[in-house]
Amino acid sequence: MASFYPNINLADRIQHTKLDTGVGGMPSARMERMETPATGDFKTVFSGLVENFNKELNAPDDLLKDVMSGNTNIDIHDVMIAMAKSEITVNVATQAVGKVIQAYDRVTQIQV
Predict the structure, then answer these.
(1) Which structural domain, as residue segments, surrounds residue 30?
(2) Predicted TM-score of the model (pTM)
(3) I want to staple 82 with a disulfide (CB 3.0 to 4.6 A). Which of 22, 23, 59, 91 is the partner?
(4) Which H, E and C letters describe 59-83, residue by residue?
(5) Residues 82-96: pLDDT tens digits?
(6) Count of domains in the chain?
(7) H helix count then E strand count, the chain
(8) Are 99 and 60 found together in one domain?
């Protein structure tokens, strides 16, 4: 009676993750960073957020001007959606500024 043994190389079939311990020649995420940060310093990130905020805030006005000038590619629903997005953006920005101010207050209260 012959038995069947499948010829499978399990080491090649293992899917490695970022948290592996160096198995299969992959570096360990616990020892060194595997990815580089996609953003620069705080000033760059914050200025990008402000630019995005300005675009979102001006989008409803620009769409409304296009609708009033007779552009048939833009519907009034697009204007309403842009207004809702800008309202959400203002709310998120207000909350973020409040959190930054709270964090600043906490940092200034730290006694060295």
Answers:
(1) 7-36
(2) 0.54
(3) 59
(4) HHHHHHHHHHCCCCCCCHHHHHHHH
(5) 899 999 989 988 998
(6) 2
(7) 3, 0
(8) yes
